[in-house]
Specification:
InterPro entries: ClpP/crotonase-like_dom_sf, Enoyl-CoA_hyd/isom_CS, Enoyl-CoA_hydra/iso, Enoyl-CoA_Hydratase/Isomerase. By secondary structure, the chain is an alpha/beta fold. The protein contains ten helices and nine strands. Helix 1 links the parallel strand 2 and strand 3. About 0% of the residues have low confidence.
Length: about 250
């Protein structure tokens, strides 16, 4: 797991693995490369003995300012039918599923801008702490695409409630850390200098938990959260996103 990554900084300290998005010059925009590297890290977790907690953070001024839209034209140029875009969308979905379902407890440590795909990565983590200066936004409709990144819709609806999420998606309005905490997008909002100590307070008891008990608890939480879903509509997300982008590009 500890190979050299181009877009992530990965460090292990005992039972804790810290994974930092490391493209600050792009606002840690989520590219195919970042998704590939996150899949490599998350795919190795269940085979990695002794890790109990993964902390996901971002380098630079922002946690993540969204998906890397600069990739879309190149992918469409290579395959006008949208095959590359669908593959990228499915990769995002796999990353988000892995964050939610991995045996270890995943913690999002948020600061600065948390936008679009950044919100997606965060809400699929089990626990989320953010600086009280965080700025959040779900901008997809304002950019002319559906909110289909990573299967985010059902997770947001379940975690935060349909009425408020409907408003935030339809208006694409900015919202602050206090609102994010009210919506349970954040579990804790604290001054940025207290972020690390807040995360550390969560980690301290978690590293002492039985691995099998943690694994069973996460299985139960995920199973009950999905109990009323007759079919997983997020399977269509990559198709929806690639279709919308293909049409939008063709219309220019």
């Amino acid at each position: 797991m500890m190979h050299d990554f181009k877009s992530l900084l990965v460090r292990r300290e005992g039972a804790v693995l810290t994974v930092q998005l490391n493209r600050p010059e792009t606002g840690n925009a989520i590219s195919g490369e970042i998704l590939d590297e996150l899949l490599a890290v998350l795919g190795a977790l269940d085979d990695e003995s002794g890790i109990r907690v993964l902390v996901l953070s971002g380098a630079g001024a922002d946690f993540c300012l969204g998906g890397d839209r600069s990739e879309f034209p190149a992918l469409l140029a290579e395959e006008p039918g949208g095959v590359g875009l669908r593959a990228l969308g499915n990769k995002a979905r796999r990353v988000c599923e892995a964050l939610a379902s991995t045996d270890v407890v995943t913690i999002a440590r948020l600061h600065g801008g948390v936008v679009g795909a950044g919100v997606g990565l965060a809400v699929f983590c089990d626990l989320r702490a953010g600086a009280d200066t965080c700025r959040f936004r779900l901008p997809e409709l304002g950019l002319g695409v559906p909110p289909a990144w990573g299967g985010i819709m059902p997770r947001l609806l379940h975690e935060a409630g349909a009425s408020r999420i409907r408003e935030l998606i339809l208006t694409a309005d900015n919202f602050d850390a206090a609102t994010a905490q009210e919506l349970s997008i954040l579990h804790k909002a604290v001054p940025e200098e207290q972020l690390d100590s807040t995360v550390a307070r969560w980690i301290k008891p978690l590293v002492r938990r039985s691995p099998s008990a943690l694994r069973t608890a996460k299985l139960m939480l995920n199973a009950y959260a999905n109990a009323n879903r007759l079919a997983d509509a997020t399977l269509f997300d990559a198709e929806l996103l690639s279709s919308a982008l293909t049409v939008a590009t063709a219309g220019r």
